[in-house]
Amino acid sequence: MRFMRKLHRWLSLVIFIQVFIWLVSGLYFSWLGHEKLAAHDYFQPVTEEAVGPVYYPESALIERFENVQSLEIRSVAGTAQYVVTTTDGKKHYVNALTGKDWKTSAPMAADLARQSYSGPGQIEQVHAVTGSDEIIGWRSKGFRVTFSDDIATRAYIDAASGDVIDHRNSSWWLSDWMFRLHFMDYSGERDFNSLLNIIAATAALWFSLSGLILLGRSLKRRQLF
Question: Where are the transmembrane segments (predicted)?
Answer without folding.
Answer: 12-31, 194-215
